[in-house]
Automatic annotation (TrEMBL):
Species, as recorded: Janibacter indicus
Lineage: Bacteria, Bacillati, Actinomycetota, Actinomycetes, Micrococcales
Protein name: Putative PD-(D/E)XK family member
InterPro entries: DUF4420
Highest rank taxon of the organism: Bacteria
Pfam assignment, any one: DUF4420
Amino acid sequence: MLTAETVEDWQSIVEGKSAAKRYFDPDHPLDLLYGADPGGRPVFIIVTPSEPDEVTVSRDITTTKGQRSDGRWVLTLRLDDGTLFTSFSRLCLDLVARSRGARSPEESIETLLRVLDEWKVLLRRYRPRRLDLAKLRGLVAELWYGFTILLEDHPASSVAQSWVGPTGAPQDFAFLDGQLCEVKARRPSKRTVEVASVAQLDPKGKPMTLGVVLLDDCSPEAVGAITLISLLSHVRSLPQLGFEGRSHVDNHIRELGVDETDTYYADTAFLVLGFQTFDVNPDFPSIRSSTLDGLPVSNVRYDLAIEPLKPHLLQEVTYADEGGPA
């Protein structure tokens, strides 16, 4: 099993500059090992039955290959910047997990290299950029609602896999059963939420809910305060999340350009004062694409008042001053 203990063990090998190499998964079709080189740099070792293609990942990862005495080949990925160990370990764990189900070593290495290509695209696109306060508030609302409220009806792994907002999808969550959910953050002083496009609240015949999280700014020391960092820590600790679910969350956070070492994300705190869930049914008062058919308009954005939505209210919870569950 690939668990946090694997990463902790790997970290201890790196910090101790040990020559130990350990298998990720003895039942994997390939021999995949983790450890460190003599200089204490993390290494990921792939043993293949035939010579692998040349591989480049990023400027911070050096790849080498060589042939063993038994005729098999070794492809080694070495991380040169130790500060990136957390990201490197997630990459390697993703490679292990997603190539495990192959029926042969040849199929497994093919899958592993394909997954590595996906990571290379992600790494090229990644540029740290600080989210402004409005976007950060929206992201916190998405994660809190998804992994607190939606968690009541779906396992954590399903919530993670269904979180598609960062990919540019119309809604924040799209479950395999067709259920859609859009989440909005609302400050106590606001009586409306902004709808960024017509598609956002147009379910096109699918079941859909709108979650509105009442989110106030507060000090990080306030009772019940949450930050993006504390929220991510909570999400990653959920027992049912699983490795693939965690990778899904981590990849989206990376795609958004969030640098979790930036103290801005730990110092900017919010208090969840409550939430509302609305049924976006055919009578829900949102603009639909059918409403605009034939009209010479585009890029529609609008503010939606909350009070008139009460007939469509499914659930409303108000928390005490210490805020909602973290």
